[in-house]
Specification:
The protein is an alpha+beta fold and about 130 residues long. About 40% of the residues lie in helices and about 20% in strands. It is built from seven helices and four strands; from the N terminus they run βααβααβααβα. It has helices at about 10-15, 20-25, 40-50, 60-65, 80-90, 100-105, 120-130, and strands at about 1-10, 30-40, 70-75, 115. Strands 2-3-1-4 form a four-stranded antiparallel β-sheet. The radius of gyration is 14 Å and the shape is globular. The structure holds adenosine-3',5'-cyclic-monophosphate. Adenosine-3',5'-cyclic-monophosphate binds next to loops.
């Protein structure tokens, strides 16, 4: 058993599909053990995505992440980090596999409905950042 961190992003909260995403999470054997709906401010979004600060998409990403509320979550399960990354699919929805959350719901590479931690170490850091 381990834990991972998830964000249901503004494009998804705006379209009222957090329940549909949570159903996929639960149907895939992950347990939502904590979640809260928050509205990020610029400083918090910038800090969370600090690793991307020199990337060309950074400012658009920050503006998008503060545009609507998000739902931050802690998910638990066997191999939770890899299992959830597999479930969400590739960053670019055109490359995401059939049945994945991003294939089903993402609008484009920035507005891609969900975030998942990419390692156990980052999961721990990201959970502590929000909970
Ligand atoms: P996420 O998994 O939250 O991590 C970084 C985010 O930056 C990513 O999802 C997307 O929302 C956004 N993003 C926008 N463009 C790109 C890109 N070209 N490559 C990676 N991430 C991008």
């Amino acid at each position: 058993m381990n834990k991972t961190f998830s964000i249901i992003k503004p494009d998804a909260t705006k379209r009222n599909i957090t329940g549909s995403i949570n159903k996929l999470i639960e149907d895939n054997g992950l347990r939502i053990i904590a979640q809260k709906r928050i509205h990020l401010d610029t400083a918090k979004a910038e800090k969370f995505y600090e690793v991307h600060k020199d990337r060309p998409f950074y400012r658009d990403l920050i503006n998008y992440m503060i545009s609507e509320p998000v739902v931050v979550q802690v998910l638990e399960g066997d191999n939770a980090v890899n299992k959830y990354r597999d479930l969400i699919g590739s960053t670019d929805p055109n490359k995401a596999k059939e049945g994945s959350i991003r294939k089903l719901y993402a609008l484009n590479t920035t507005q891609n409905s969900v975030h998942a931690s990419d390692s156990l170490e980052n999961a721990k850091r990201e959970i502590e950042f929000f909970f």
